[in-house]
Design a protein that fits this description.
The complex is a heterodimer of chains A (385) and B (327). Chain A is mainly α. Chain A has a domain at 74-306. Chain A is 70% helix and 5% strand. Chain A is built from 15 helices and five strands. Chain A has helices spanning 2-11, 22-53, 63-88, 96-116, 121-148, 154-173, 185-190, 214-219, 226-244, 246-256, 258-263, 268-294, 306-315, 327-346, 353-378, and strands spanning 177-178, 192-197, 203-206, 220-225, 297-298. Chain A has a three-stranded antiparallel beta sheet. In chain A, helix 13 runs parallel beside helix 15 (353-378). With 327 residues, chain B is an alpha/beta fold. Chain B folds into two domains: 27-137 and 275-303, Response regulator (Rossmann fold, 3-Layer(aba) Sandwich), CATH 3.40.50; 140-272, Response regulator (Rossmann fold, 3-Layer(aba) Sandwich). Helices cover 46% and strands 18% of the residues of chain B. Chain B has helices at 2-26, 39-55, 69-82, 99-107, 140-154, 171-187, 203-216, 228-240, 256-263, 275-290, 315-318; strands at 29-33, 58-61, 87-90, 111-115, 134-137, 159-165, 191-198, 220-225, 248-252, 267-272, 299-301, 305-307. In chain B, helix 5 (140-154) packs across helix 6. Classes of the chains: A mainly alpha (385), B alpha/beta (327). At the A-B interface, helix 3, helix 7, helix 8, helix 12 and helix 14 of A face helix 1, helix 3 and helix 4 of B.
Chain lengths: 385, 327
């Protein structure tokens, strides 16, 4: 698609500046929605291929699998959400995975401590959330201050803090895993809004897990687990923040041109500090949710997640040069990664292929991004991105 | 003409797939989800596949690329979402954190057998976690004691020794550390134990950590590597420091590298676990449970083969060295 786009652009080099030919317009449109198209094509592929290769005993398109994918995207998506803002503002945050680990440890320690001192479960969980997100935000504040005020490149600062945070998380957790949490938190991390049992003797249940066993239990679908609901709220809030508020407009402005942003009176330093705090905070939510899900804090939980989260952001169309990108793009990017993992497991293909496909898709994403610039350059650069 | 034959072929293919599917639907289906890619689990996979062939069951295998709950859980969830598995055979990467995700599998009607590592305290009858059918693996505390006795003997009953391990809160290596320390404290009061350091299943990191301890403790007499990666790292560091033979290494897990280091006089004792047995027996247990057998033991210890310089050439012992065809 990329090659075609650039060839198209070249063949219409003679058209007057500022005007796009219909073909260029189509290429530009495709380059905007390609991630959706790719996701849809991938889902379609698995919907057809999974029953074929398993003789119809496994289906990709089930309620259970849709919920499984929604749960699977949570950590990558939450880490990617704050990162989306940071990269749009032409920065980078390499500390997100380890900030998530720290938040997991902090929320577990706080939750356990408060609960053991006699506070009921629900308030204890809220204290855990506050400790995880608050502790993470402190790291983000430090990142932001060093980047904005001391003018150290974000890559270096966040690389440095990622190591420091890792060490602190290990030290605080003593042996990397914080255990002895109240068993009741398992419900917060794993239970759901809706339970559905299809077929005979089934039904719909809300908020509480129905007491069933055997065949009924096997048929039960868990719909909208609480962590998915929490994540959906964070995503909605991030969309509002980026696309509907002055904070969002300033983020794009800083990424588009730092000089212009400064000249137009945007409080750039303060904004950058807030961006890194935001990035750390969404990672903090991820750490908190993982503590609930696994009923333990873990200083290594976020280790494998940094690169996947950046990949999701890039696949979602956020430009590494700043100034462009959307929240929904990152959601699509995270979905592509999760759909791929799940689909490959269902096809019984080695999960390692996931790395190869994700890597290729990341590179294609950037190529498409660049081809878009090429088309616009041919058209005299007067087209809105 | 050509079109019709193509269509006939396509129809034939669909029929073939469909009939294959009809057969497959009646077979028992088992998911196999070990901890990480390493020779130990690869040999276990051989056991799983052999049993699957012998017993006529289907197995779906996924191996996490790195050790940890965040690598293992998505694969587990996807296996559960398939909806066609009756049993999952797995090595939980954390004895507490994997309880929730595996309980979710059980909630969906999948039965769980743990191999190599267990959940909770490993007592599925009276312990905090009761839902797995069985734990099939080594008695790792006993393994730690054997390693301690072997190392103490190799260093003449006195001196400083060092433990390199992989991850905290993993039942297998935790048991080994515990048994090792207990045995040293009980029977060898002149042996001082350092560590453990945790390499997070990374042989390079294990090498660095051991090298640092060698630099800090010039009189180090011995090292205990609690699994594949730890033993590789400890052995490599000793060789790099030119201390082969001066610092005795005891290796848990009989990798080819551990045996080579034994030939060179670096490693004095290798504890071979029996991953093939674990894999084979786990599939047997699943098949037996499906057939209605109700008296399966909740805990099976598969024992060790203790390999040293004297018996390493003995075929009855050498067969326990982890060998994967083509690797």
């Amino acid at each position: 698609m990329t090659e075609r786009a650039s060839r198209l652009a070249l063949s219409h080099a003679a058209s007057p500046p500022g005007v796009l030919t219909p073909a260029q317009r189509a290429a530009l449109f495709l380059s905007r929605i390609w991630a959706w198209v790719f996701l849809a094509a991938m889902v379609l592929f698995f919907v057809v291929a999974v029953p074929l290769t398993t003789g119809g005993s496994v289906n990709f398109l089930t309620v259970r699998n849709s919920q499984n994918i929604l749960v699977a995207i949570i950590p990558v998506l939450l880490l990617g959400l704050g990162q989306t803002f940071v990269i749009i503002a032409a920065g980078i945050d390499l500390s997100v995975g380890w900030v998530m680990s720290l938040a997991s440890v902090l929320s577990a320690l706080a939750l356990r401590g408060v609960f053991n001192s006699g506070v009921p479960l629900f308030p204890s969980v809220l204290v855990g959330l506050a400790a995880g997100v608050g502790g993470a935000a402190v790291v983000g504040f430090v990142n932001g201050v060093i980047i904005a005020k001391l003018k150290v490149p974000a890559f270096i600062v966040t690389l440095g803090t990622s190591f420091i945070v890792r060490g602190v998380a290990y030290l605080m957790s003593e042996n990397t895993t914080v255990i002895g949490l109240p068993s009741g938190i398992r419900a917060y991390g794993n239970d759901a809004l809706i339970y559905h049992i299809g077929g005979e003797g089934g039904g719909l249940y809300f908020l509480h897990r129905p007491e069933v066993s055997g065949e009924l239990l096997r048929r039960m679908d868990i719909i909208l687990p609480y962590p998915v609901v929490v994540t959906a709220f964070v995503v909605a809030w991030a969309m509002f923040l980026l696309h509907k508020t002055q904070f969002g407009r300033h983020t794009y402005a800083i990424g588009g041109s730092m000089d212009a942003a400064v000249r137009s009176g945007i409080p750039v330093d303060r904004h950058i500090i807030e961006l890194y705090m935001l990035s750390a905070a969404t990672s903090g939510v991820a750490g908190f949710l993982s503590t609930l899900r696994y009923t333990a804090g873990s200083a290594v939980i976020g280790d494998p997640l940094l690169l996947s989260s950046i990949a999701a952001v890039i696949i979602g169309g956020v430009s590494m040069f700043g100034g462009a990108g959307t929240v929904i793009g990152t959601v699509i990017g995270a979905l592509i990664i999760a759909v791929l993992t799940t689909g490959l497991v269902m096809l019984n293909v080695d999960a390692f292929w996931q790395f190869i496909v994700v890597g290729a898709v990341v590179i294609v994403a950037v190529l498409i991004d660049q081809s878009r610039d090429l088309i616009m350059a041919r058209a005299g650069g007067r087209v809105r991105r | 003409m050509r079109k019709t034959s193509l269509m006939a072929m396509a129809a034939g293919l669909v029929l073939a797939l469909a009939s294959q599917g009809a057969e497959a639907a009646e077979k028992l289906k088992i998911g196999f989800l070990p901890g990480v890619v390493d020779p130990f689990y690869q040999v276990m996979q051989l056991g799983v596949e052999k049993a699957a062939k012998d017993l006529g069951v289907d197995v779906v295998t996924q191996i996490p690329p790195t050790w940890g709950v965040e690598a293992q859980t998505p694969l587990l969830d996807a296996m559960v979402a398939r909806g066609d598995l009756n049993y999952i055979i797995t090595a939980p990467t954390d004895k507490d954190q994997m309880v929730g995700p595996l309980q979710a599998a059980v909630d969906h009607g999948i039965k769980v057998i743990t191999v190599d590592t267990f959940l909770g305290d490993g007592d599925y009858v009276k312990g905090p976690v009761k839902f797995p059918i069985s734990y099939i693996g080594s008695d790792n505390t006993e393994g730690g004691r054997i390693a301690a006795r072997g190392l103490a003997k190799a260093i003449g009953g006195k001196g400083t020794v060092y433990i390199n391990s992989t991850n905290p809160n993993v039942s297998s290596v935790e048991g080994r550390e515990k048994g090792f320390k207990e045995e040293m404290a009980k029977d060898f009061p002149d042996v001082k134990v350092l560590g453990p350091d945790y390499n997070l299943d990374d042989a390079n990191k294990a090498t660095q950590q051991t090298a640092a301890v060698l630099a800090r403790e010039p009189n180090l007499a011995g090292a205990f590597g609690t699994n594949v990666f730890s033993a590789q790292g400890a052995g490599t560091a000793v060789v790099n420091a030119g201390l082969g033979g001066h610092v005795q290494v005891v290796a848990y897990d009989a990798t080819k590298q551990a045996i080579e280091l034994m030939d060179k006089g670096v490693v004095s004792l290798v504890l071979a676990q029996k991953p093939f047995d674990m894999g084979y027996m786990a599939v047997m247990f699943a098949a037996a449970d499906a057939a209605g057998v109700t008296s399966l033991p909740r805990r099976v210890e598969t024992g060790f083969a203790i390999i040293d310089k004297e018996n390493v050439k003995d075929p009855a012992v050498a067969r326990f060295i982890y060998r994967v065809p083509g690797k």
